[in-house]
Specification:
mainly alpha; Growth Hormone, Chain: A
Length: about 400
């Protein structure tokens, strides 16, 4: 198999861009929608907790989509599951745009997540097919940097749409994004898993693969490091709209611009990480990210508990929590996947499942305070960063190799 680094630059760039589109599903589907939370709550005559459940439904769908899409791509190849995922995601957006009540909106979000999860997990498996060793960590970081454009653009676009239309218009825009996913998968992503490398055995093979994965201590440790870190980050994503608009009084556009700035910081640091990863041990970069995230959570807690939700330190803490993920997600995922390259689809599915469960759990818990209190968000953040450090400590000191395995 020809590695990505040996392919023509244009082809590599096109492939990375296509994969970035597939992995931009979560930020686009959550961040473009998040400025509309208060409007959805009022329009559908529901509660902040119920609106938080639309995020939970999306990430439950993401989990199921990845759990199905990863192993299916190991058996059937990469392109077809990716294209099918884009189509299902598009249909889910249409259901959301037409939803007459919160129940249908939750179901539409579940469908949207199902298709998006399948496309995203197959996209990451394609990257594992074509990049090895430290280059995998480098490309994971580049992919994260490109994908981070989505949360920069999405909330601003969502805020702009809300100034001229309703929250339903946001989902019509997401329908267009689903079509873009499908088109880029069909036109720019080659089949990277030839028939002789495909797995067989159906459900029995999947169960066997999961057993292999959970028996790998480092794989599980880095998987949980990423998941718990995402748990802390998603406390910010799911509740910041209520807190910054409802408690501190930011306008939807001001909130969207701040949200975009936090995503921009993550993108810039992802580029820095991509350049550092061949010179600094990836697990040390994970520790750096976890340290910055922990400091950010402390700043947020002080702002909420001691300073009565002071805007400036609160935003500073949010910025640190978001930007720190640039050193956590790409490196921890590459470290985990480097252990189990022979079952890349199933491994990516389990990674995605853990992350989706963490996100789905964090959303309703962190947003349960609505615009009344930020304390639930702080509690979720503390649990997340503590869990991430605990998982990292189990595996971080056992990695003695300077570079990731090449095969």
């Amino acid at each position: 198999m020809t590695s990505l680094s040996s392919r023509p630059a244009a082809a590599s760039t096109g492939l990375l861009l296509a994969l970035a589109v597939q992995n931009a599903v979560p930020p686009f589907a959550t961040d473009m929608y998040s400025p509309a939370f208060p409007e959805v709550t009022a329009d559908l005559h529901t509660s902040a907790t119920s609106v938080g459940l639309t995020l939970t439904a999306f990430f439950v769908g993401m989990a199921l989509g990845q759990l199905i899409g990863g192993p299916v791509s190991d058996q059937r190849g990469r392109r077809l599951p990716m294209v099918a995922g884009g189509l299902v995601c598009t249909v889910g957006a249409v259901v959301c745009a037409l939803a007459p009540n919160i129940t249908v909106l939750v179901l539409g979000r579940l469908l949207q997540g199902l298709g998006g999860g399948a496309a995203a997990v197959v996209g990451r498996s394609v990257l594992v097919d074509v990049a090895h060793g430290d280059m995998l960590a480098r490309f994971m970081s580049i992919l994260m940097a490109v994908s981070a454009l989505a949360p920069m653009v999405a909330p601003v676009a969502g805020g702009a749409v809300l100034t001229v239309g309703t929250w339903r218009a946001v989902f019509w825009c997401l329908m267009g994004f689903g079509l873009l996913m499908t088109a880029t998968a069909a036109l720019l992503v080659p089949e990277t898993l030839p028939p002789h490398r495909r797995q067989s055995g159906g459900t029995r093979r999947l169960v066997s693969g999961v057993r292999v994965l959970v028996a790998r201590r480092r794989f599980v440790g880095y998987m949980l490091t990423s998941a718990f870190s995402g748990f802390a980050m998603f406390a910010y994503i799911s509740s910041s709209s209520f807190i910054l608009q409802g408690i501190t009084g930011l306008s939807p556009m001001a909130f969207s611009l701040f949200f975009a700035s936090t995503a921009g910081s993550q993108m810039l640091l992802s580029v820095v990480n991509a350049n550092l990863v061949t010179r600094v041990r990836p697990h040390r970069l994970v520790a750096l990210g976890l340290s910055v995230s922990a400091v950010g959570v402390i700043v947020v807690a002080v702002s909420v508990v001691l300073l009565d939700v002071a805007l400036v330190p609160l935003c500073a803490g949010f910025l640190m929590v978001m930007s720190a993920q640039a050193f956590v997600f790409g490196n921890s995922s590459a470290l985990a996947l480097g252990e189990v390259r022979h079952v890349a689809g199933a491994a990516n599915a389990l990674l995605g499942l853990a992350q989706a469960v963490a996100n789905a759990t964090a959303a309703p818990l962190a947003s349960s305070g609505g615009s009344d209190t930020a304390v639930p968000m702080v509690v979720v953040m503390v649990v997340g960063v503590t869990g991430a450090w605990a998982a990292y400590t189990v595996v971080g000191r056992t990695t003695q190799k300077r570079h990731l395995p090449e095969a």
